[in-house]
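<instruction>
Derive C-alpha cells from the sequence
<data>
Labelled lines for chain and fold
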Amino acid sequence: MNEHVWRTFKAVGEHQSLSQAARALNLSQSAVSQQIHQLESAYGTPLLIRTSQGVRLNDAGEIVYRYVTQLLQTWEASKQAVAQHLADAPARLTVGASLTIAEFILPRVLARMSQARPRPQFTLYMANSHDIKDRVMHKDIDLGLIEAPLSNTALAARPFLADRLHLVVSQSHPLANRNRITISELRQLPLVIREPGSGTRMVVESALGQLGISLNDLNIHFVLGTTQAIKAMIIQQQDASILSPYTILPHERHLFHIIDVEGLALLRHFTIIHHHEFVHPLAEALVRALMAENWGEMLS
C-alpha cells in the first residue's frame, strides 16, 4: 500500500465526504473512490458507512484511521531525520589525479575547501594520466585531473591551468648560467624522464615528434616514476629533466635553474575530465575552485 492511499483515507475520514476529500487532494472523486475500495479490499471489510449526507468511519475504519495517522506522522518524521542526516553528513568525492597535479596543484585547492562545514571528504587516487583516464572511463573514480591531451569524446574535458614545461638543471650544473639552449644541445644532455603513460612524458614526446625527433634520439640516463625522484636525481647526479615550473616549490628554487629549449613547443593544459552525465555538488564545487584559483601566485 502506498503513501497516497493512506493520505486519501485520512482525508476522507476527516472531511466525511468523498467529494470534499477529492478537492482537498486535487484528485477526481472517482480516483478517491478507487483508493478507498483498494484499502477496503486489502483489509477485507468495509471501512466507511455511506449515507445520503456523505460518509463516516465505521468501527474498523476508526481503528485504521488511528494507525494511518501514526504511520504518516512516522513517515514524515523519518523523512525529516534523513534530510537532517544528509545535511550534517560530509559530502564525499573520489578524485583521481596525475602525479604532478596531485602533489603540487591539488593540495592548494583542497586545503581551502576543507575549511567548509560540514567538511567535505575527498578520496584521492594518484596515478599517471593514462591510468586516470581509464579509471574515469570505467567509473572507478568520480572526477579526473590529467596533464595529457584527451582524445576520448566519451568524456567531458575542462582545461583549468596552462602549463609550459622547461628544462630543469641544478644550480651547480654547467648550464646553470644559460637561459636558453638549442635542440642539438638538448640531444647531448644526460636526461631523466618520466615513465610511459605520464602526462609530462606525453607532452615531451609530442613536442619532439613535431620536430621529427623521438625519445630514442635523446641521451636518457634514467626513467623514474615520480617528479620528486627526478628532482633528487637532478641534484645528486647532475642530470637534467623537462618538468613543470609548478613542481619547483618556493623553498627549492635556490636548488634549481630553469632553461628554455628553442623550438620545442612544451605548452600543455591541466584538464578536468568526467562523464558527460555526471552531476555531483562537491565535484562542481571543486571544478569552480580550480577554475577560479590564481595559479600565477605559485610561480611568483
User: Anything to note?
Assistant: The mean pLDDT is 91.
